[in-house]
Amino acid sequence: MTTLIQEEPVSQPLTAGTSLRVQEDAPRDLHLEGEATTDMARVPPRKTFSRLITLPSSSKKPRYLQEKEWLGMVTAVDEVGFTARLKDYQGGPDLETSFLFEEIPQEDLDLVQPGSEFYWSLGYRIEPNGQRLRYSLVHFRRLPKWTAQKLTEARQRARDTLRALDSELDGTT
Amino acid sequence: MEQPSHDEVEITLFGPGYGESVVVHLGDGCWIIVDSCYGAWCRSDPAPIWYLKQLGVNIDAQVRLIVCSHWHDDHVGGLSDVVRQASQAPVYISQALRNEEFLTLLELYDRSPMDEPGIRQISGVFRQCRGGRLRFASQDRVLIAAAGHQVSALSPSDLSVQDALAVFANQARSLVPGSPPLRISSLRPNHTSVVLSIANPHFQALLGADLEVTAHSHRGWQAIIDSSTTLPERASFFKIPHHGSENGHHPEIWGSRLEPQVTAVLSPFKGGNVVLPLGRDVDRIRSLTDQAFATGVPRAKKAVLPAPVEKTVREMGKEVVELPQARGFVRARRRAAGLSSWRVDCFHEAGPLERLYPTDRAG
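^ Those are the sequences you sent over. The predicted structure of the assembly is below.
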């Protein structure tokens, strides 16, 4: 397992240029930036750390602070959008709202049909410079496809159930 | 609330806006439960169980029959809990569900991460009802004879059962390795709903489930009219089918199989963008009887959200509401014997159709 330990106080967001220590068993495809710096040399030697890295520029990513998430179920679809029932993970009453198709990611549009499920989360997006923006994310659930084994097992159990019902109702058991 | 006396018949309808359940007292402390739902006023128990507990009924001993009219989500909320608590009662479901194709779907979806509440409830019923407790209702089958009454199923017809089998088989054929799970609760089994007649020598009642009208003589309401041998001559109580919808309305039932001023009760429906009854449904029903009642009008209530969430929702121009709920139920009682009329009591927000749904309501 790779553990990244931030040199800066943990409460601050990661930004490019932050120095990090990398455990020895870190995968070799990490962006390592040479040998230990002077700062590193002042730290008492510890077996598990050997190098310092600087996060690549791609790590300049915003953070997300989620305030609320619901599991939604599409109940009706029309020309411009859909209505959905929202289930609260924290046990509140079921709610209802509607969405326009333009609020849904392009790759999820095919999944919008009555009965399909999605997650709707609301919160803050915190930019690397600390600016906070409100966000609303809709993500449709992709369920595992049926496997041959699952189908075979289900059919067998169905046959067993039917046989048991028939014999119970015939009074033979 | 007081229990009905031993010689009183009672029919109580619950319908919170998304859900329906009927509780019937046949007399002599003998009760039956048809379908199940939860109510806004009773979240801990399904509505029929909550009600019987309020009356002080010994549920385990006195509930003598449970009927699941069909497996749509709005008729089976908490049904497996009802079956568990009324553990001595035989359970009848539609004959349309007695086939390998449906059971395969049941097995698959009960173990799937997909949220299919109706399937989970029916699965729970199958699991609990071993040893001959689970039985199947079809046209003209007598389900129970007790306290001087006979309770019979008027549907599903043989052809409706065959239709359902074809639908399930078609769905089952689409199950191949690598195929994605598709919703199955949207299949339309309303033609296989179990309609019940309750009869003794002095009165008859008809519980219409969600059965719909079709043009075909061997399906839906037409099959009952054409071929049922247990259809009441003149029922004095009618649980209006399919939440008052036009597709559950058969003129011949109203014209020749119900008393002219029949006591008629409906539960409303609000799901997605479907709202029942419509204004024209209310007008039609009110033109047929002055004794029409409803369990309420589903009303949306603004959701209470944490302040930051509320602000985000508002800025997005969205409206998030609690699921519309009708908070009431309708109870009708009469003497089982002799000449008697129904005495109707409306609880909470239930009431006469004319008060809850004024005639100028848009359809």
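Chain A has two domains: 4-59, 63-140. The radius of gyration of chain A is 26 Å.

Shout if you want it in another format.
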